[in-house]
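ok new one. same drill as before - structure tokens go in, u give me an amino acid for every spot. 325 of them this time. try not to just spam alanines like last time pls lmao
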């Protein structure tokens, strides 16, 4: 390794100094250049900042205007919000009122529905009742029609029956007069029986039978006359019974029912009821307690039997069958 001398060190120191100077000079130039560049950059930045500042001022002014507008609109919005709040409050109150009204309406609707259902039920019942009444009216009209036909038939049959009754009545009166005369004659003849007295009476030739003449011959046995008178009485009674039966049928419209159709009523009971004026089923069906007592008094022990055998119910059914038929 070579030996380092002072010269070498001096050269090194000189080279170092020259290098430092060159470096300082280069650095100075570079610093100046950088300073110029930095100044230019600062100028540009300042210019840009001024432009930005102006822009910001304009923007700030615009924002201030917008802020003023915003504050005005905010004020309007607050006023609008207050109005909306009041309107909302009124709307809530109106909603509550409407809810109450809806509740009341629902209650009224339920009452109306209940009334409607009740009315529909009433209407259905009335319709059914009207149908029943219509059927009853139809039945009544049919009965009235049938009765009118029967009445018309009786109106046609009544004059001949009345004429027949009047004729029979006149014949009965004539027979009764003849019967009274015959009885008087019998009484007179009976008073003369057993005596020798001869009685002369005027004789009507037309009244003499078998061509006999009046004479003073002894009278025949009065038994023959009595037999003739008895036969006349029987004929008169038969005629009266027949006549009264015709009159009774006429007055009762020939409506005497066969009461023996009622269970528990035989011929004897029917005859007793007819004698009491009970001739038809509807009379038994409409019997009152007084009439039941009257029948029970006439036929002892029959009060319980009337209820036990249900004469009234049987008579009602038979009358309905008769009218319906």
């Amino acid at each position: 390794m070579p030996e380092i001398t002072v010269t070498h060190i001096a050269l090194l120191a000189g080279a170092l100094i020259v290098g430092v100077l060159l470096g300082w000079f280069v650095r100075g130039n570079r610093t100046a250049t950088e300073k110029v560049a930095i100044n230019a950059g600062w100028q540009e930045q300042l210019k840009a900042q001024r432009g930005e500042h102006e822009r910001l001022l304009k923007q700030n002014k615009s924002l201030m205007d917008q802020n003023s507008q915003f504050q005005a609109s905010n004020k309007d919005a607050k006023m609008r919000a207050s109005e909306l709040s009041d309107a909302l409050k009124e709307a809530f109150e109106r909603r509550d009122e409407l809810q109450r009204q809806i509740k009341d309406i629902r209650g009224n609707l339920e009452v109306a529905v209940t009334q409607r259902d009740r009315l529909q039920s009433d209407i259905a019942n009335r319709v059914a009742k009207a149908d029943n009444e219509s059927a009853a009216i139809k039945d009544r009209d049919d009965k009235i029609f049938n009765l009118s036909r029967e009445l018309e038939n009786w109106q046609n049959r009544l004059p001949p029956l009345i004429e027949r009754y009047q004729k029979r009545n006149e014949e009965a009166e004539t027979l009764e007069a003849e019967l009274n005369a015959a009885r008087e004659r019998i009484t007179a003849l009976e008073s003369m029986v057993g005596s020798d007295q001869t009685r002369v009476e005027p004789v009507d030739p037309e009244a003499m039978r078998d061509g006999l003449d009046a004479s003073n011959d002894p009278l025949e046995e009065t038994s023959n006359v009595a037999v003739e008178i008895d036969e006349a009485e029987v004929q008169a009674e038969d005629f009266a019974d027949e006549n009264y039966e015709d009159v009774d049928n006429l007055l009762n419209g020939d409506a005497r029912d066969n009461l023996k159709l009622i269970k528990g009523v035989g011929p004897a009971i029917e005859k007793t009821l007819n004698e009491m004026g009970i001739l038809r089923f509807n009379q038994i069906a409409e019997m009152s307690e007084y009439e039941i007592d009257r029948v029970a008094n006439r036929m002892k022990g029959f009060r319980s039997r009337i209820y036990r055998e249900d004469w009234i119910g049987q008579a009602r059914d038979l009358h309905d069958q008769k009218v319906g038929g």
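Confidence is low (pLDDT under 50) at residues 196-205, 207-254. and btw DSSP finds seven helices and no strands in the chain.
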